[in-house]
Amino acid sequence: MTDLHGARDPREEAQALLGGDLEARVLEPSPPTVTQDPYADDPVDPAGAAVVSPVASGQLTWDAWADANPGHDDFLAARWLGRFPRLGPAPDTLTATREALHALTTHVLTPARFAANGKIAMRYTAGGFGTPFFGDDEQLRVVGTRLVRQRGGSAEATPITTLAEAAAFALDGPPSLDWVDALTLHDPPQPVPHDQALEVDAEAAAFLADWFGFAWSILEELRADAASTEASRPQLWPEHFDPAIEVLPDKQRASYGFSPGDGGIPEPYIYVSVWYPDDALAGTDASLWNAGGFRGAALRLSEFVDVDDQRDHVLRWLRARREALAH
Predict the structure, then answer these.
(1) Cβ(240)–Cβ(273) under 8 Å?
(2) Does residue 101 contact residue 205 with C-beta atoms inside 8 Å?
(3) Using CA atoms, how far apart are residues 271 and 304, in angstroms rounded to an integer?
(4) Per-residue burial over 213-244, b = 16 or more CB atoms within 10 Å of its CB, e = otherwise
């Protein structure tokens, strides 16, 4: 098994399983640094004669490849490429861990990427989440309870303790929210004391990693649907700390996302937030739109954690609301 705290090239790791006749696609960012818009590699780019992809739009899914090439289930499951694991109930320590890692994201990871290219979004990475590669093939990522800084072919890791220590390790300076002043954000992140202990529990951090992997695997599948017109790329937005995409044009447009919990709904939930509800929801089935704090729909983890096929259930839930908005 790959050392997730060491220097990694996720696409090369997967390519090593396939050999030379097939092309690997993965959900994680891989080097080299992309310096032109959209400033990140596309994990499920269908180009290529024989692509093995985590989504069905490729020539071959990783699950189908694994059927003919046994012995790699752990590798695929750890990266949410196939042989998908199940989500369990959220641990009691999730809220404190979520808040700590959210603060780490806004005060350390985001300013590092923003300083390099003016971009702020994060991506899923195995064992957690992190930046796409920026600058001189540099990446910051969270793996469990540790912060990893990869530069070129080397990487070092440190325990997550305080924002001050994390910034000294990753930014070579203090924590920063300067990037917030340069952007117009609906819900800007709030300052957190730099010397405050960050409570990151290992069980909750592992749950969050799986939540983001689960989210990314589904959002990429949804984005690949022919019906998902004008779909954006999945992004883990630092101000909200949730991955999401936007789908459909004009007044039909909505955000489809996976919140790990917030002040409105404490437990993890999936949402469809409609941009123009007065227009888009007219004539649709009102039972589809059950969210209380916003105009749209919410599916709580507790409502689907026990279903037989969690990914299929969530995909069908999201597609039903996309189809309603496309009426």
Answers:
(1) no
(2) yes
(3) 13
(4) bbbbbbbbbbbbbeebeebbbbbbbbbbbbbb
Q: Phi first, then psi: what are they for 272, rounded to 5°?
A: -125, 115
Distances (CA, A) of 206 to 91, 122, 171, 314, 322: 10, 17, 25, 21, 30
The tokens for 254 are 């909505």
Calpha distance 27→179 (Å, rounded)? 26
Instruction: Please say whether the beta carbons of 90 and 267 come within 8 A.
Output: yes
pTM equals 0.97
Confidence tier at 17 by pLDDT (50, 70, 90): very high
In tens, the pLDDT along 213-225 reads 999 999 999 999 9
Give tens-digit pLDDT for 251-291. 999 999 999 999 999 999 999 999 999 999 999 999 999 99
What's the CA gap between 293 and 261, in Å, rounded?
13
Residue 86, pLDDT score: 98
Query: For the range 262-269, what are the long-range contacts, defined as Cβ-Cβ under 8 Å and sequence gap of 24 or more?
Result: 264/292, 264/293, 264/294, 265/293, 265/298, 265/300, 266/95, 267/90, 267/300, 267/301, 267/302, 268/90, 268/94, 268/211, 268/300, 268/301, 269/298, 269/299, 269/300, 269/301
Phi and psi, residue 63, nearest 5°: -60, -45
- The span from the CA of 34 to the CA of 123, in Å, is 14
Answer for the pair 314, 307: CB distance below 8 angstroms, yes or no.
no
